[in-house]
Design brief:
Layout lengths: L1 E6 L10 E4 L13 E6 L4 E11 L14 E2 L8 H14 L3 H8 L11 E6 L3 H14 L2 H12 L2 E3 H6 L5 H9 L3 E6 L22 H12 L4 E6 L5 H14 L3 E5 L7 H11 L3 E3 L6 H13 L4 E4 L11 E7 L16 H12 L2 E6 L4 H8 L4 E5 L11 E6 H6 L8 H12 L3 E5 L9 E3 L16 E3 L3 E3 L6 E3 L12 E3 L4 H11 L5 E4 L9 H10 L5 E4 L12 E6 L13 H14 L9 E6 L5 H7 L3 H15 L6 E9 L2 H15 L8 E13 L2 E10 L2 H18 L6 E5 L2
Parallel strand pairs: 9-14, 9-15, 10-12, 10-13, 11-12, 13-14, 16-26, 17-24, 17-25, 23-24, 25-26
Antiparallel strand pairs: 1-2, 1-4, 3-4, 3-5, 6-7, 6-8, 18-22, 19-20, 20-21, 27-29, 27-30, 28-29
Helix pairs in contact: 1-2, 1-11, 3-4, 7-8, 17-18, 18-19, 20-21
Bound molecules: adenosine-5'-diphosphate and zinc ion (2 copies).
């Protein structure tokens, strides 16, 4: 017998199957997916490898083949389904099979799962309420959070309390010392296997009609993928909980993906309250060992609902029944590391192997997915109302900044916003100010000539790092922080980058004595920077939180009643066909941050283009209206999902040569392209120089995929004759 194996080294040269002889002793026991040791390379060093296929025959001469050394008994075998998923990911996203396997099989050493630790409140409810009242009086915010959580649930998972509730160890120590809190470890009670919910677990509210429809529809649909579209607070999470209940009843398991930043204590506790310790969570602050333990529990079927960001998708459930992806439009679902997989696509692939359902939830669905739903490829369920009767959407006011200028107001804040901030501060409520801008954070520029300090090899600004060095995020080039401007020699050099700093200064000037916090790439660069800022703001150690997109995602701050969006259009001016979509998503999300349960919130949107449909429809919180206008634009310009496009990139060390080459290709292609193809460019790439290579692009678009591929073939034929492979690189890229 012969085995095809992959060698466990992430290198392109070994990214193929190697054939080994299977020793007789192993013939019976060896399976695809087994982890084995094989002699490899000149020195026949023993290497880890995975068996991918087994066969009786081989095309190789017998004597040239080496033999598998042994099965690594302590190690896991990869399940065949995971192996197939890894192969699919490698084919779809590039990288090596080994890299894909590292993702899909992160557990490679055997672990004995430990019991989970819980904090238990030991006294009765009356005492808890008294203690909560005292904490409120003394403004002990950490205690207020902890006691409020105990009101809902007498036992709280220890990991969540420190990580997600942001409760420091001193608070807990003193409560444990005084006997109010006890730590217990316990085994899983695995209570939901039967038809009935276990005692002591919360039951949800009765679903409203739209919610009930969604649950019924998703479970009954013959389409495996459904979109659940509902405004913030419309009860999507409640729908997820009900779906999970049904899937668990069938004896199956569920993965729930939630963007890391939205994975708050309150959210996770809702799942715990409903399903007890059948639920487990993984996220970036869970150690590798713990993650292995939790995955192992999932594999054994002790944990049956796994919640986490992107990587929870690879939880090794054996009877997967459903994958739920909340806020599925979020860019954090696309991996930044090789393989650069898209969690939504990968989830659909993984679910197909189990005949499982996929539920994609969002208040602002991805336009392309929504289009697929409209075409009947995905199920579509919509929730139009807030679930809590009487709860209202925040009141949104759009302010035209051009009018402010006419009035002579040159500050960052419109008169209305200033007034509203003052009002809220007086009432001791909190305010968030959102600067809709990304990029440039951490860059260094000259106040005299205005030039940023750029990488000598790439057309991007260097980033300042805390060790007083400047670094290129593209090629890794590093140099010490400069004390004079490399362009004009001025010593007025500094880090401004974010703009949030300027906003902070302006707030302090306008409202003397105001306590501000800033959340951006600068202030969160430390290990716990992000957490610390959230904790401080939760503890009301600041009145105003200023930040970039980080502040509009995730955390609900109960006391925030005003959200100011300072410049709504900044994200519109980005050269990307999805700029309006991103803007709509960000604005809608930001608006949803103001005013939570009970307190009415308000949002001020400042903009230079109040008439732009993305701004207008976001202010009305009307996704449908946005979608319709956006599709008109996409159809007109043949952008996805209404059309298809591709980029042809020419790069080389000689800028004139690159320009000439792409020009020649374009000229030759034009008369030969199929009818209906449109081209854009050639033009410099966004980042026109990378590692000393200049880059120009040509976009070509078509209304259907067939035509686009025909156009691609025309370009391929031409580039073969035009290109001098040694000097210019020509590549095709999909958006
Ligand atoms: P979303 O996930 O869409 O933001 P949630 O599921 O968090 O919405 O629901 C928002 C609030 O409404 C929560 O406090 C939830 O408990 C409550 N809620 C959800 N569904 C119902 C319902 N059918 N009846 C009463 N309250 C509900
Ligand atoms: Zn200068
Ligand atoms: Zn560089």
């Amino acid at each position: 017998m012969y085995a095809g194996v992959v060698i466990d080294i992430p290198h392109k040269n070994v990214d193929r199957l190697f054939t080994y002889r299977v020793p007789q002793a192993l013939e019976k026991s060896l399976k695809a997916g087994d982890s084995v040791l094989v002699p490899f390379g000149k020195g026949n060093k023993l290497r880890n490898a995975y068996v991918v296929s087994l066969s009786e025959k081989t095309g190789y001469p017998e004597e040239g083949l080496k033999e598998i050394d042994s099965i690594k008994e302590k190690d896991y075998s990869i399940e065949e389904r995971m192996l197939r998923l890894a192969i699919w990911m490698r084919d779809r996203y590039g990288g090596t099979l080994d890299q894909a396997l590292r993702l899909t099989v992160p557990t490679r050493t055997e672990v004995t799962p430990r019991d989970e630790r819980f904090y238990v409140f030991t006294k009765d409810r009356e005492e808890l309420e008294t203690m909560l009242a005292v904490a409120e009086k003394k403004k002990h915010y950490a205690r207020i959070r902890l006691f409020t959580a105990f009101l809902d649930n007498n036992e709280l998972p220890a990991g969540l309390v420190s990580d997600r509730l942001n409760i420091g160890s001193s608070t807990l120590k003193s409560l444990i010392g005084s006997g109010h809190v006890r730590v217990i470890s316990k085994k899983n009670r695995n209570s939901l296997a039967g038809p009935a919910l276990a005692d002591g677990l919360a039951k949800g509210p009765e679903l409203n009609e739209e919610q009930a429809n969604a649950v019924r529809g998703i479970l009954g649909a013959d389409r495996p993928v459904s979109i659940l579209h509902g405004i913030t607070g419309s009860g999507k999470t409640e729908v997820y909980l009900r779906l999970i209940e049904e899937v668990l009843r069938e004896g199956k398991e569920v993965i729930v993906l939630i963007p890391e930043i939205a994975l708050t204590f309150q959210t996770v506790m809702r799942f715990y309250a409903r399903f007890g310790d059948l639920v487990s969570v993984v996220h970036s602050r869970v150690s590798k060992g713990e993650k292995c333990e939790r995955f192992e529990l999932a594999k054994n079927g002790e944990v049956r609902v796994m919640i986490g960001p992107r990587s929870a998708l690879f939880t090794p459930f054996q009877k997967l029944g459903m994958i739920i992806i909340d806020e599925f439009h979020e860019s954090s679902y696309i991996s930044e590391q090789t393989p650069r997989y898209h969690a939504v696509e990968t989830a659909i692939r993984r679910a197909a192997d189990f005949d499982a359902k996929v539920v994609l939830g969002s208040a602002t669905p991805d336009v392309s997915c929504y289009y697929q739903a409209m075409n009947g490829e995905f199920g579509l369920f919509e929730l139009h109302e807030r679930a809590v009767p009487g709860s209202e959407l925040p009141k949104v006011t759009v302010v035209d900044l051009r009018e402010e200028l006419k009035k002579g107001n040159r500050t960052i804040f419109s008169e209305v916003l200033q007034e509203k901030i003052r009002e809220r501060l007086k009432k001791n409520e909190q305010v968030m100010l959102f600067l809709n801008r990304r990029g440039y954070a951490g860059s260094v520029s000259c106040r005299s000539c205005g030039k940023p300090v750029e990488c000598p090899h790439c057309s991007v600004s260097l980033h300042y790092h805390n060790n007083h060095r400047l670094k290129c995020h593209i090629c890794g080039y590093e140099m010490p922080m400069v004390d004079a401007c490399p362009t004009c020699g001025s010593s007025l050099i500094g880090r401004f980058g974010t703009g949030t700093q300027k906003v902070e200064e302006a707030v302090q000037e306008l409202f003397p004595g105001v306590r501000t916090l800033r959340m951006d790439a600068d202030t969160t660069s430390g290990k716990n920077g992000h957490q610390e800022i959230i904790e401080k703001f939760m503890n009301h150690d600041a009145d105003v939180l200023i930040g970039t997109q980080m502040i509009v995602k995730g955390h609900d701050f109960k006391n925030v009643t005003l959200m100011g969006i300072l410049a709504a259009d900044l994200s519109l001016n980005v050269p990307d066909y999805r700029a309006s979509e991103r803007t709509f998503q960000l604005l809608t999300q930001a608006e949803g941050r103001a005013g939570r349960a009970g307190i009415a919130g308000e949002c001020i949107v400042q903009t230079y283009v109040p008439e732009h449909y993305a701004v207008r429809t976001a202010a009305e919180q009307d996704f449908k209206a946005f979608y319709e206008e956006e599709m008109v634009f996409r159809k007109q310009l043949m952008y996805p999902p209404a059309g298809f496009f591709m980029m042809l990139m020419v790069s080389g060390a000689d800028r004139t040569g690159v320009h000439g080459t792409i020009g020649a290709i374009t000229e030759e292609a034009l008369p030969r392209l199929p009818a209906g193809v449109r081209i854009l460019g050639p033009t410099d790439a966004d980042i026109y120089r990378v590692k000393d290579m200049y880059r120009e692009m040509l976009y070509f678009k078509a209304g259907d995929e067939e035509t686009l591929l025909r156009a691609k073939r025309v370009f391929e034929e031409i580039t073969e004759t035009v290109s001098d492979g040694k000097r210019y690189y020509i590549s095709f890229e999909e958006p």
